[in-house]
Amino acid sequence: MEIVIFLFILGSIGLVVWSFISSQPSTFLRIPQDDLGVKFQKPKFNFARVFPTGSFLQSIGMTASLKKILETARVGMSPEAFFNLKILLCILLGALVVAVSGRSDPWILIIVIAIGYNLPDFYLKRKIAKRKYLIARRLPETVDLLGLCIEAGLDFVNAIKWVIERTPHTPMTEELVFVIDEIKWGKSRIQALKDMSRRLEIPEMSSFVQTIIQAERMGTPVAEAFTILSEDARAQRFHRGERIALQAPIKILLPLIFFIMPVIGIVVGGPILLSFMQGGLTGFK
Questions:
Q1: What is the pLDDT of residues 143-160, one digit of tens each?
Q2: DSSP letters spanning 130-195
Q3: H or E segment at 40?
Q4: Distance from first CA to last CA of the chain, Å, rounded?
């Protein structure tokens, strides 16, 4: 068993070294920037070349789902690279546990491998949830700025460019930059907005895109629609804050029971218990 583990460690190290050597210089990552341009830089490590898992992911239908998740989280990795990272993490964590403990318990290895396989997914879910929260929080102000720019005489695309250039760099501006890039590449404005709504799956963003589509079809002024949408987005944000505030007493109940109540019991009942153990309750007469 020790020989097999040693071969696994040696093979993983060899694969890492081979991926460093055989990485092509033409592979680039797309990283959104504050300006309207797109910065391309060479990745330091190409996990897509560690294992030939591209055909396997396509055969089981995981390529499209992984690509959507990675695009939503704004992680500059391909689905093959992300899956290879999970495999390498499983191998390295299993080898580390065996090297530290000095034994190879099958159940412990299974648990460690499961943790290593699901850890990147947990990271992506946390990052996506944080991005969605920041986008929903920033959306009312962005809608107000777009409405003011359109009322000042700018068209929709130039209004988006003005918001990107004049506002701080946030996940909301990253999504707007991506929309502008897709329009430059030849995609229609409505389709780019629909793709953004489908990619994020945020109710407020879906309402934003639907409002623009209805204004385009019905011929109504977009600025007035943006005013109503901004009020609705602020109301939804206020209701979300109320829901979070109502959840606070329930969340504080667990630490109250397990951490605060035992301390109060020790402080109140400790002297009584010590006095009873030493000589009964004569000191309290």
A1: 888 888 888 888 888 889
A2: HHHHHHHHHHHHHHHHHHHHHHTT--HHHHHHHHHHHS---HHHHHHHHHHHHHHTT--HHHHHHH
A3: strand 38-41
A4: 71
- The answer to whether 52 and 84 are in contact (CB under 8 A) is no
Please, what is the angle between helix 79-101 and helix 63-73, to 10°? 90
CA 164 to each of CA 108, 174, 197: distance values in angstroms, whole numbers, following the listed order: 50, 8, 18
Higher pLDDT, 65 or 10: 65
Name the token pair of 95: 């080898």
Distances (CA, A) of 149 to 36, 93, 153, 197, 267: 18, 53, 7, 22, 63
Helical segments of 201-280, H only: 203-218, 222-255, 261-279
Q: Which pLDDT belongs to residue 99?
A: 82
* pLDDT above 60 (res 9): no
Q: What is the pLDDT of residues 19-73, one digit of tens each?
A: 443 333 333 334 444 444 444 344 445 665 656 677 777 777 788 888 888 888 8
* Sole residue written with tokens 């929080």: 137
Which tokens go with 132?
């969605």
205: three-class secondary structure by DSSP: helix
Q: Which two tokens stand for residue 271?
A: 């002297």
